[in-house]
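ZP: hey, is the 2-(butylsulfanyl)adenosine complex queued? I don't see it on the tracker
AM: it wasn't, my bad. submitting now with these inputs:
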Amino acid sequence: MDINEAKRRAIELAQQLNYHNHRYYVLDDPEIPDSEYDRMLRELQGIEERYPELLSIDSPTQRVGAAPAGKFEEATHLQPMLSLGNAFTAEELQDFDRRVREGLGTAGLVAYSAEPKLDGAAVNLLYEKGVLVRASTRGDGASGEDITQNVRTIPTVPLRLQGAGYPARMEVRGEIFMRLAGFASLNQRIEDEGGKPFVNPRNAAAGSLRQLDSRVTAGRPLTMFTYGIGEWEGGGKPDSHTELLATLARWGFAVSPDASLVTGYQGCLNYYETMQQKRPDLPYEIDGVVYKVDSAALQEELGYVARAPRWAVAHKFPAQEELSVIRDVEFQVGRTGALTPVARLEPVFVGGVTVSNATLHNMDEIERKDIRIGDTVFVRRAGDVIPEVVRILPERRPDSARHIELPNSCPVCGSDVERIPGEAVARCVGGLYCKAQRKEALIHFASRRAMDIEGLGTKLIEQLVDADLLRTPADIFELTADALEGLERMGPKSAENVIAAIERSRHTTLPRFIFALGIREVGETTAKSLARHLAGLEALVAADEDTLQGTPDVGPVVAGNILRFFAEAHNREVVSRLIDLGITWDEMPQVGDSDSQFSGKTVVITGTLSEMSRDQAKELLESLGARVTNSVSKKTDFVLTGENPGSKVEKAKKLGVTVISTTEFSKMVNF
Ligand code: IVH
């Protein structure tokens, strides 16, 4: 390849790489696989190595970063980078809108372009003839630091503009930031390497931009949205902000997908509320919204005060982080018995509300963040999320600061507190006995798939527990219509219906009964398996670890949960009271008793069955001692197939598993 040919090919490759980079990073809509992109990039690198004179500053190969520079040079902005006035309340927003209308001498409604206020670092990009020639930080507004090498590594920043019609020289302004997912994985990486993680995405973005070695910046998940211009030399300017954003997007820049044209003060306020609601779901942090008078002509008419435009304002969301002091720590018992440490704080206004409690999650978190009573802490409340303690300020720790200790017994019921080694969560073992866990346990007990007591739902159970009419599931069977009638929205008729439903539920099945007990991680399948493999309830209560683990579906964790459940005297007492109160079930076919060919076998059902429903087939198989599972493996004994079976039959054939049709199945089981 001679130099002319190489040059032609290099230009072609650069064009294609720029195009695909834009599709991938800005439009999030790639056209070619990564491998193809990498191949083209390597080809271009090869050409540039052979003919260094072909290497240009806008070459896509320049995104990988370069050897460290000594320091950042100063870069003077061609047009100053302004700041924005703030509005913190609806009144302040109204004042802004009034000033705009007074300034324009209009009583009519003003059109504003509204967009999120990104929480990152503002940068200025200088393009000459469509090529990025310099990128700089905001600095003091007049000049900042030259961070061109670093910014070139950011894939959403075009090194060369697309399309046509751009001015000979222009400054494009926007925010460089880090998405939450990128921030989390970066921090994980830093922590894995023994480094100190960044406190928030904004610091991570700013810190990454200030790396002297741009190869480090290249490895940081930075991105950019553009939202404004400075210098504009040659070529017609868009005549509105909306048009500007569309133009920037056409040239290959990323702009916020949430920008919107709104009308008047009320339109701004609606936008603010919409974005506030959207905020928790956004993949990046925003700290407010910005409104800009949309018309460029009106912007010019309004002009500037001090260092901020009269035509724009930032409407800030309430701060999400504030400082407070931990006065004390208490432990709350949740619905599953989990003990959550909660910090009692000096009340502080954060995220729009006064916060005086914040979760500390669990003991591991307390240790990791080194939190003590008396510490000054950053409290965060984002959206509707529960307030949490983000980190402490070690320099403000008083001598009197105290360690936080996990209590030995449950603060609600006094049962033992257990912390399983390797698990972060500590739990009260009180189970059904612990009032904190009682409501949830009772709701589960009465639920459709458990004891199936119609009419005994969440609302009623809550009322009954609050009135102290229900303590344990056994109490359900001693309820009277009289007692129920006294409750809210409970006429004599509904009370009778509930009592009748309770009566009906006395006769159940052993799997339902075991499931209803609410033993941690004992779901319906495990309950069925236990019922089938152990010789009745007594055997379950008395089973040792080996026996439990000998049951399909039961591993060491579940076995441990079952053992702990029946080790509590309260739980054994509730079970025997239930039996005394007349809970009964039919004998179950036991595994091994049955001479059925399905006993102890693993069966997968696939396709549409004709003679019976899938659930019926499943129940039938299970009553014959089979285990019904979802995926075909070497351990599968039979695949029962109906019409339109999927890939499961193929797989079964490949593995040599016996496939049976519904007709064959019916014959085998005399259905
Ligand atoms: S416009 C003349 N739009 O907020 C207008 N700024 O508080 C100049 N910012 O320095 C800025 N998102 O770093 C504008 N959509 C947005 C913004 C935004 C974030 C930052 C920017 C600016 C600061 C002013």
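AM: back. The CA atoms of residues 455 and 494 lie 8 Å apart.
ZP: great, adding it to the tracker
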